[in-house]
Design goal:
95 residues, mainly alpha, three-stranded antiparallel β-sheet, 3 strands, 49% helix, 12% strand, elongated
Length: 95
Amino acid sequence: MKVIIIGAKACKELVVRIEKVERALASKKLPNTPPDDDWVDGKTVCRYLGISPRTLQRLRSDRVISYSSLNHKLYYTLGDIKRVLHERSVNRRKE
């Protein structure tokens, strides 16, 4: 392990810079929803949609939802899941 010795003034300047970075990061709001290009596995999709793995398989077989396969595991984009939900949503009329 290397030991580096710096002066008190340089240390204070470094702390001030770190605090500025910390404030800048804290002021930025993080999005509540993950980006649409994020990939999730089948278990996460089933949990998110409240469906069984067999229903997810049926959606794949019927080519309703697209997926990618990597090492025998299937992945789906969040954007595609949102698209399917939006396309199949049913709007209720007020009467």
